User: Fold this.
Amino acid sequence: MTASAQSESVRLRDLGVAPGLFSPGSLNAITDVAGVQVGHRTRMEGDSVRTGVTAIRPHGGDLFREKVPAAVHVGNGFGKAAGFLQVRELGTIETPIVLTNTLDVGTAVDATVAWTLDRPGHEDVGSVNAVVGETNDGYLNDIRGQHVTRGDVTAAIESASGGPVAEGSVGAGTGTSALGWKGGIGTSSRVLPEEHGTHTVGALVQANYGGVLRIDGVPVGERLGRYDFRSVVEGEGGEEAPGPDDAGSCMIVLATDAPVSPRNLERMAKRAMLGLARTGSYASNGSGDFVVAFSTQNRRTGAAAPRPDSLLPNDQMSPLFLATVEATEEAVYNALTAATTVTGRDGHTQKALPLARLRTILREAGRIDTTESDAPRP
Assistant:
């Protein structure tokens, strides 16, 4: 049996907090970048299967024949991402970007290659660079059971669509934990002001990492008494986040409709780590922090390459850098506020971020209008 995504979830802005300078798109999601599609496959079965797949399609056409400009960045390389070397070398992506758990990367690569080979008109294709990212959901999930199937990966890819994106304990975020609480999938976007071209930047994260949670600059983790190294800082008796401090990772996928070269996409990808830092990450030894960035403009067909004068120059990149930082930061917050409490392998439980207490903390810090009422958790 496969569990479906929750139909409603709370996002940070539902609590009255609007982080950052730039405004989000209408969906505040990676799908605000026209043509981008997201699909999930959630596996929540019995008392120990808590995993899944999330697929991001840069456009709904033949991605192998119409590759998109792309780049990758490794913030900390403790991870098993696949397909990064060719993206770095050639500057394009030719398959959906698939996210799953650490031990099912092989299955995801196999399924993505098979799905690409099976597309009409691909009878002559003899090489496919599947891009797959992962985080380790083994605290809640029976990861050694390798429960993700080729069918799960195919279902995530083929169910991908535009519009609102399910967040929290769904897809590749079903079994993840972040910053002491239940993590998951989160997304956000930013639209540049008219003076800077009204380009859109979207981010999607698979949040599964440790740290000291900060939301819009407020030390939430410390206020809630749940953060890495608390027992060291406060002495015996402090509550550590469940699971080892050094475990986890974060996969970040960036999309933009700005006409950006692969070199400048890599520069954007590097800035995503600054957004992660704003949330309280310190990129621990065991945190595999990987970024994939692509542009939906200047698709590559055959050997054709875009004219240099069709690309944004370096001196117009700074607004996109800020948009990247802000969208990545808020995507993590949305993963946390949308996630639900999950109990999984060996009875391990990862609690959802307590929204009523969070709202009080943010109100006391002056981040919320005191006339607004609390938003209940669905």
